[in-house]
Amino acid sequence: MKIEHIAMYVNDLESARDFFVKYLGGTSNDGYHNETTGFRSFFISFDDGARLEIMSKPFMEDIKKSTDRTGYIHIAFSVGSVEKVNHLTGQFREDGFEILSGPRTTGDGYYESCIVGFEGNQIEITV
């Protein structure tokens, strides 16, 4: 069994798509739009077969996203090396994203950094 895809609602669909393509090497489909409901989505595919569906629709609730809460908290991306974690974290910093932690080796042995990405969503970058 495998997770087929993960989905998330976003306010700015094109900016979210561009984030995953620019920084994390995703490839986007052409998108879907239901003109009756206003629902729109893109599937972002990654090299290992993982997919992320980003979606938007009119009139969504947008509550503050605390990093200390229950529920889904972050998406982790393995970039393959310590050097790539360092480089990408530096790129996020230069582009104005908040760095929550790292790069560092965690107590359970992961080399990682965590950032606040688009729309307050936490992204983990790991080897």
- Radius of gyration equals 15 Å
- Look up the CATH topology of the largest domain: 2,3-Dihydroxybiphenyl 1,2-Dioxygenase, domain 1
Biggest sheet details = 5 strands, mixed
Q: What count of domains describes the coordinates?
A: 2
How far the N terminus sits from the C terminus, by CA atoms, comes to 24 Å
What value does the average pLDDT take?
93
Q: What ranges have pLDDT less than 50 throughout 5 or more consecutive residues?
A: none
Helix content: 10-25%
How many strands? 9
What structural class should be given to the helix and strand makeup?
alpha+beta
Beta-strand fraction estimate: 25-35%
Lay out the secondary structure.
Elements: E1 6-9, H1 13-24, E2 27-28, E3 32-33, E4 40-45, E5 51-56, E6 74-78, H2 82-94, E7 98-105, E8 111-116, E9 122-126
Parallel strand pairs: 1-5, 6-9
Antiparallel strand pairs: 2-4, 3-4, 4-5, 7-8, 8-9
Plain-language structure description:
- With 127 residues, the chain is of the alpha+beta class.
- Helices cover 20% and strands 35% of the residues.
- The strands form two sheets. Strands 1, 2, 3, 4 and 5 form a five-stranded mixed beta sheet that branches. The chain has a four-stranded mixed beta sheet with strand order 6-9-8-7.
- It is globular.
- 16% of the residues are buried.
- The model has no long low-confidence stretch (mean pLDDT 93).
List the main descriptive attributes of the protein structure presented here.
single chain; 127 residues; alpha+beta; 2,3-Dihydroxybiphenyl 1,2-Dioxygenase, domain 1; 2 domains; five-stranded mixed sheet; four-stranded mixed sheet; 2 helices; 9 strands; 35% strand
